[in-house]
Design brief:
Blueprint (H helix, E strand, L loop, with lengths): L1 E6 L11 H6 L3 E6 L6 H15 L61 H14 L1 H4 L23 H5 L2 H10 L13 H14 L5
Antiparallel strand pairs: 1-2
Helix pairs in contact: 3-7, 6-7
This protein binds heme C (HEC).
The site of heme C has 21 residues, from helix 4 and helix 6.
């Protein structure tokens, strides 16, 4: 429906949609379309939006999906187990450069000097953190350990005796098989102390 609105700042009842009346009262005539109710344009919009939302489900395509805001999702990058055509051995994952150490391993690298105080500390920490499973003498028969489905390893085997000090530090730091890591409970210096104390326990020759 086409209509007109008289305009003079305020609405004068009964004067809309009649150009003749507007003229009579010397009011400015603004030609605007008055569209009561829903028009065809509205309907077209609604159908288009519905189609967009339903996203043409069920269609298959070999094209990659449209990704309006890619951010950095699809950047070119190396992934650990991917193939690489850049390196001669065709691996993305690079071996550690010889003579270097990973950043996080730095503080654990230096073996502290063995002192009586360190041993004492090691014994105290061992009794708190390890003995419940590995037992006070390290034979794997601690109160908790003997109830575990997979028994804690005894430290009195040829295999365990042959392990260097840093193997124990490594097990404490990273865990091994079913044993969890203790790096959050036991600071690195104490881990060395415990390892030294385990070496001393092995002198018991059980
Ligand atoms: C909750 C029980 C538990 C505690 C506490 C525990 N361990 Fe263990 N540990 C185990 C179990 C179980 C295994 C055997 C894991 C397996 O074989 O799956 C094991 C294995 C080991 C081994 C054998 C590694 C090898 O080379 O096979 C070492 C060394 C060890 N623990 C050291 C420690 C030290 C040091 C502590 C104290 C910081 C400690 N554990 C605390 C349960 C425990």
């Amino acid at each position: 429906m086409r209509g007109f609105t008289c305009h003079k700042g305020s609405v004068i009842p009964g004067l809309t949609r009649d150009p003749a009346q507007c003229k009579r009262f010397n009011l400015k005539l603004t030609g605007s379309r008055v569209k009561p109710g829903m028009t065809r344009n509205h309907l077209v919009c609604i159908v288009l939006i519905a189609l967009a939302i339903s996203g043409c489900r069920g269609w298959t395509s070999t094209e990659p999906p449209i990704h309006p805001n890619p951010n950095m999702d699809t950047q070119i990058k190396y992934k650990a187990y991917r193939e690489s055509d850049f390196f001669a051995d065709q691996r993305d994952m690079r071996p550690r450069v010889e003579g270097t150490i990973a950043h996080g391993d730095l503080d654990g690298l230096k073996q502290p000097t063995m002192t009586h105080a360190l041993m004492q500390r090691g014994r105290q920490r061992y009794d708190i953190y390890c003995a419940p499973c590995h037992s006070k003498v390290g034979d794997g028969d601690g109160l908790v350990g003997r109830r575990m489905p997979i028994k804690p390893t005894t430290f009195h085997s040829d295999y365990m005796r042959a392990q260097p000090l840093k193997h124990y530090v490594d097990v404490e730091t990273n865990g091994i098989r079913t044993m969890p890591s203790y790096k959050h409970q036991v600071p690195i210096q104490d881990r060395w102390a415990i390892a030294a104390y385990i070496k001393a326990l092995q002198e018991l020759k059980l």
